[in-house]
Amino acid sequence: PNGNRIGWLSCQEKLESIAIPIGLLQRCIKVSNEPPQGLKANILRGLNLFRGDALEQCLKENEFKSIVFCLCYFHAVIVERRKFGKQGWNRVYPFNLGDLSVSAQVLRNYLDDQPHIPWDDLRYIFGEIMYGGHITDDWDRRLCNSYLLNYINPSALSGGDLFDGFKVPSPTEYEGYVEVVEQMPAENPSAFGMHANAEIEHRLQLSDHLFLNINRLGGGAAGGGVEGKTERIKSMIDDILEKLPTAIDMTDVQDKTSGDTGNPYTNVFLQECSYLNALQAEMLRSLKEADSALRGDVTLTEAIEILMGCLFDGTIPPSWAKLSWATCRSLGAWVQDFVARFSQVSNWAVNPSLPLSCWLSGMVNPQAFTTAVVQVTARKNDWPLDKVTIQTEVTKFANATDVSAPSTAGAYVHGMFLQGARWNEKVGGLDDPLPGQLVQQLPVVLLKAVQQGKEATRDIYVCPVYKTQDRGPTFVFTARLKTRTPAKRWVIGGTAVLLDPEKA
Q1: How many C-beta atoms surround the C-beta of residue 492 within 10 A?
Q2: What pLDDT was estimated at residue 13?
Q3: In the chain, which residues have pLDDT < 70?
Q4: What is the rounded CA–CA span in Å between residue 443 and residue 495?
Q5: How far apart are CA 156 and CA 168, in angstroms?
Q6: pLDDT of residue 4
Q7: Which run of H or E residues covers position 417?
Q8: Which of 244, 266, 281, 285 is buried deepest, with most CB atoms within 10 A?
Q9: Of 363, 375, 281, whose CA–CA distance to 326 is shortest?
């Protein structure tokens, strides 16, 4: 071996076909380029691409410098925003320095070739091609473009605000920009255009993750040995069996609704009864089987062991999760939620008519209910079904019990929660959330259908509605909420409606 030679193995080349001895790998030193933590560190990392004379190579030097700085800030914000979890981005995207470098090259070409700065063209290329090429979620794409509207505009050339206490610096050299960034105010949620509550949510996520890992490392037990574990599982089985409601008699319900099978609302509730009946049957079967195994009456199978492990850990067993709705709840809270959902459909089964206000978040398939609203209205007005869309109106009814008569224009629903904003009844629109108020329940909402093109657009925030805090894959429909401030404020703030915000 020659001590003057160094071997370099990179993941950028295809090495799958090369068999590298384990002993050699154990002697190697791993060198990795990890992304920095924090907004300031990410801005400095982006500026590092423009050391030397890179900032002086454009014919419109001052404009290029200012816009490049805004691009570096934009890049840092969208990279670091992922720390806010699903309120930051619905999905995780691999934004990298290559996106920033190519965007700067495109910017230089445009500035050299165009007499005026084509702001719209630049924002489109950055938001739809360079960075937008990574984005697969439409709501995330809207967020990216909203950031670009804030940063890539004429104010970038005149010292516009990036966030409270930090403005776009005057054109200078690389070292001058570094000095400005080093002296920037401490990072806070306003630097991302978000409310201070987002930081609380972020800290809660970190603590939840920490305690989850501690629980896993400790085996999920606080002591007591095998007997203590068995007693706890037995107690859980007895408790759930005691709370488990009786199955709905579908034959009786179908007899009651035999003359109303064409009603979309009736079909929705029949489906809900079937969903929850199937889940109730699986819960009852598996719990009785586990109880018999604890007594030694049946053989302890792998499926029963998994069920017992979930009961002990407080997580939803896989066989139940298959038949369940989307949820982030722990087992105890999930069982309570199941009982409440079953109560809604049981009450409907006794009197099969549309409730004065439906508990939308208590439905396994809330999309079916919104579709039923559209179908009923389209039939009533003889509108083409594909030309009708859902419209939302937040009413003055604070609670479902305040509704005294059904709506003739649609259906009242409740159980919707705002995250990233609150509903201000005095102004009849969105407002900043109160400190420490992570979610706020909306008043009763009227769901109605209107023809496409006739929905309200003025002073409206088009708000996504999700089933849980996981957002992305749990999207239900779009709510139109009134606002007196520009809609992009709520877009950047991560404002959304959640049907089930509970995590525990």
Answers
A1: 21
A2: 47
A3: 1-19, 32-35, 218-227, 503-504
A4: 17
A5: 6
A6: 65
A7: strand 417-419
A8: 266
A9: 363
CA atoms of 70 and 163, how far apart (whole Å):
12
Lookup: tokens for 370: 């919104």
Q: Are 93 and 132 in contact (CB under 8 A)?
A: no
Position 194 scores a pLDDT of 94
Coil vs helix vs strand at 497: strand
DSSP letter at 130 equals: I
d(CA 137, CA 142): 9
DSSP 2-47: -TT------TTS--TT----HHHHHHS-----PPPSSHHHHHHHHH
Looking at the DSSP bridge assignments, the partners of residue 446 are: 393, 412
Closest CA to 333 of 316, 346, 321, 319: 316
| Secondary structure letter of residue 91 according to DSSP | S
Query: 380: part of which helix (H) or strand (E)?
Result: helix 366-381
Pair 477, 465: CB distance under 8 Å: yes
CA distance 370 to 155: 43
Q: Is residue 403 a contact partner of residue 397, using CB atoms and an 8 Å limit?
A: yes
Q: What is the DSSP letter of 442?
A: -
Cα–Cα distance measured from residue 320 to residue 311, given in angstroms and rounded to the nearest whole number? 12
The per-residue pLDDT for 39 is 94
The pLDDT of residue 8: 61
* Contact present, 149 and 123 (Cβ < 8 Å): yes
Phi-psi region of 311 (alpha: psi -120 to 50; beta: other; left: phi over 0): alpha
pLDDT reported for residue 3:
59
pLDDT in tens, 173-186: 999 999 999 999 99
Helix (H) or strand (E) holding 233: helix 225-243
Q: Which pLDDT tens digit goes with each residue over 48-59?
A: 999 988 999 899
